[in-house]
Amino acid sequence: CKFTNYNFKDNMNLEIIWTILPMVILVFIAYPSLFYLYLFDLSINPTVLTKVFGAQWYWIYENFDNVEGNSYSSYPLLDLDLLKSKKYMMGWRLLETDTRMILPYLTEIQCLTTSLDVIHSFSIPGLGIKIDAIPGRLNSVNFQINHPGTYYGQCAEICGTGHSFMPICVEAV
């Protein structure tokens, strides 16, 4: 075959170089990346700690200090309740809840999530939050709300027949 270069047939030094050199480059890229990835998820003394429990098909919110009156459930509003208010006309039919989760803005918040029955996913796209709520596992997410207002979300995991009716409503004050 006239296209074969016999000088590169058995060049052991070249094979070692093009195997070892990319490995060294990848290690130098990976080490700082993993270091900063660890620091990114590390929160320094969050001011507000809250627990979120997913259940079929509602959410339970609880303050971490376990003071009486700090645990409350959040159910979706029925169509009759929405018809009485003007929110039905604004398109909030599957997003509004009877009890909103109240959180302060411009504050470091740590949210611990778990589930009481099946896998749920606590998702609020306006805040950039999506964390799974898994039975027997405690997951945490740290975030900060930069602007006051109302933020809507839903369960982002298919968790049963009432999955599409698990709204999340957070009011930042």
Automatic annotation (TrEMBL):
Cofactor note: Binds a copper A center.
GO biological process, one term: ATP synthesis coupled electron transport
Membrane topology of the entry: Multi-pass membrane protein
Segments traversing the membrane: 16-39
InterPro entries: CcO_II (IPR045187), CcO_II-like_C (IPR002429), Copper_CuA (IPR001505), Cupredoxin (IPR008972), Cyt_c_oxidase_su2_TM_dom (IPR011759), Cyt_c_oxidase_su2_TM_sf (IPR036257)
Family stated for the protein in its record: Belongs to the cytochrome c oxidase subunit 2 family.
Assembly with partners or alone: Component of the cytochrome c oxidase (complex IV, CIV), a multisubunit enzyme composed of a catalytic core of 3 subunits and several supernumerary subunits. The complex exists as a monomer or a dimer and forms supercomplexes (SCs) in the inner mitochondrial membrane with ubiquinol-cytochrome c oxidoreductase (cytochrome b-c1 complex, complex III, CIII).
Descriptive protein name: Cytochrome c oxidase subunit 2
Taxonomic lineage from the root: Eukaryota, Metazoa, Ecdysozoa, Arthropoda, Hexapoda
